[in-house]
Amino acid sequence: MRKTIRIFALGLALLLLTACGAAQPPSVSGLPGPGTEGVSASAAPEARYVYEEVELPEDIIMSHAVELADGSLRFISSYSYVRENEDGSTAFVSQSSLWSLSASGEAEQLAVLSDGTSEERFSGFVLAPDGGFFCSMYQPDAEEYLLRFGPDGSEAGRWPMSSLIPAGEYRGLMAVDSAGRLCVCTSVPEQDPRLRVFDCSGSEPVGVCDIQLEGLPAYGVNIVPLSDALALYWTDDQDGSFISRVDVEGGAVGEAVSISVDCSWGVLPAPDGRLLACGNFSLWELDPNTGTGEKLADYIDYGSSYPPELMLSDGRLLVSDGGRNFWLVTKVESTEPITVITLALTGIGQDMNAMYLYGLAADFNRRNADARVELVDYTVYNTAEDGLAGTVRLAADMFAGSCPDIVMLEGISVASWAKRGMLLELNAFIDGADGVDRSTLFDNWLRASELGGELYSIPMSWKVWAAAAAAAYAEGYEGISYADVEEIMAANPAIEYAVGLNTSRQTYLETALNFNASALMDWEAGTCDFTSGLFEAILAQAAKQPVEAVTGESTPYGYEWDYNEQQMLASGRQLLYTSTVNLYVMRTFPDALGEGFVFCGFPGTGEGRGIAVEPILPLGISAATEHPDECWSFLKTVLTKDSMTLDGYSPLRSVADREIATYLKNLAGWRENGYDLTADMGKITQRGLELYDSVTAKGLAAFEAAEVIYGMDAEALGIIADAAAPYFAGEKSAPDVAAEVQSRVATYMAEQG
Questions:
Q1: Helix or strand or coil: residue 334?
Q2: pTM, whole model, 2 decimals?
């Protein structure tokens, strides 16, 4: 689908309009929107956050934590996995254990509930105020049981779930109230759900109440224990979220109160009978009587992307990074100034990549005591009719001098902004005293992003794009031109298609333009070249592709589109396969193309390798920032993130090396165990495995060879798509279309400065 970017050649009137006092819209994300006075500032916030790392043994996962009277924590560690049995069969098993975490942060295992040797499966853990807990247990093809454990982890009761919940009802969420009673929501198809409360302190559970929850959703009713009562929390898809008190002894549910603050992540109990509403980005103290709330913090303030696991009685928060790392966070009042770095977002709420950025900002805040990143959400200006209004507003703010410190540059002409002096040059930081050793990076990716030897953006991650072909056809081509493609096909009549039929006309056109963007548009010089023959060659090949991609049953070689292309390549009927260079490609194509498999580059002028690198979510530093060093400190963490990022790669060589080494190790294990990989999703055969080592080497060589940026300006893409339509309809010649595109794109580039 073509995306059109509005031209940022804004007139004076627009600049005045957007820079002055238009009403501030509410933030749809829960993050602050841009202010009208400018957003870059140094501040002396009301508080800092102090972190105590919770050190847990390896393979221990903290969940369902509860605070005891002595200030210690109890928590469950539970995870499931597929176990391989000696006879070659497999079983789905779980490992569960009860742990204590002392007030000083020492973890101690109290009991092992399941060690993975049986097929007993534990779920539905809920901890009681005394450190005991309930859970359910079942085995395949066996009855589900309710289990009660004491504070020391010893089993104190076991009852068939059928003895508690009548036939036809299904157990939902469970909780334990302040009196230690078990509360269970049950559902009945096409009926109102029920709340059942049991006193399990004796040898047999005793029913305390059975309440029909009239008008509540059949599934997803949450139970929230209060210090003196019980509350129910639920969400209606149309009307929002609600909370209601429950009189357990009286067997009645109070009036439903509409919740006015964001609680997308749910509601948590807090000390002194308080409640916490956990929104997408912020934590609120919730009044269950009115549904109103007072904001306590943005998650990013305390260095996380997630709601807290627990609030302790002393006000500390137990937070995590979404994985195995946990911290106890204390809010400390302070008068010491903190440098606040504002980062303008244009894609959060609609782009998961931006959510990853949010996580990096949270991590930065946790690691830096004297600087903090704050996100400013420009998508508050977006509408259903104009999804790019926020980006336009950001451009207007930048032109008017109301600048964030760091800017998300997705959909923005970096060259235009750099020419206007709106962005800082970044090579000076990379090569400076607090820089990065370029030998640790795929530095060619950064060099490909340069404008006249200067770098203005650092992406969150990268993709490497290339075309693959059999060596019998493409060996010796350092780069491949459209003339080369025609020559190869003429010499090999068995080749029916240059590109697979799964690639539609529009997809091919955009892909070819993205590969050849630097040859067609020179932003440094402010010129374009659509009349020298390359563009016409692209049009000619695009015209050979189907209007709609050929998929499903209509494919000549099966149902799976990707595998179909591999079969076409293996049979010699297709010349090129275009893809990102990743492990999936490198593990599957030896089967199709054999030992001579090569990354030959995508057709173009034939100059260079034709291998391109695509920056994902580029970030730049505003030239107007008062905190360039702090901004660089954040971008440095982005540049050197030691993990796979988003759906692409970090530029760190170690990341690619480690991922490939891990995969090769797994492949070795599969070989040793004699697995039949032919039936695997990737259609890997033993021959493919034997070739994998050499193929991965070629993949890394492609990483090294990437020398141009994949991606054409979105506005230019829109211009070309509009102009090309008459050619595909047979109404205009390729030279006429090329001349029109040349004129329109040249005008557009001139407008960009």
A1: coil
A2: 0.79
